[in-house]
Design a protein that fits this description.
Elements lengths: L11 H15 L7 H16 L3 H18 L2 H17 L7
Helix pairs in contact: 1-2, 2-3, 2-4, 3-4
Length: about 100
């Protein structure tokens, strides 16, 4: 998630806007579509990084459920890690 021209990582409102744009672009695709899955994870991460973990939590939960249903163990581990990070930020360490 970085600029193709300069290589700088996206952050702040730009990262959040790109997360929403990705989700809106791919939401109509089937659950098995990898771009839809990636856009959900991107949105969840962007919400969390922009100090909106309460909003990120259900997105990351849904992302994990989707990955458990249709995708590889590697993608499941990534989703679990993102969710654990969000839960930790929310102070829910026992669930993380």
């Amino acid at each position: 998630e970085s600029c193709f021209d300069c290589g700088q990582d996206f952050h702040g409102p730009v990262r959040l806007a790109l997360g929403w744009a990705a989700w809106k672009t791919y939401v109509g695709r089937p659950d098995t579509d990898r771009f839809r899955s990636a856009s959900m994870a991107t949105l969840g991460a962007a919400l969390c990084k922009n100090e909106r973990p309460e909003e990120a939590h259900p997105v990351l939960e849904a992302s994990l459920a989707l990955k458990r249903r249709y995708f590889s163990e590697e993608s499941i581990l990534g989703a679990q890690s993102s969710l654990a990070n969000c839960l930790s930020i929310l102070g829910r360490h026992d669930e993380a």
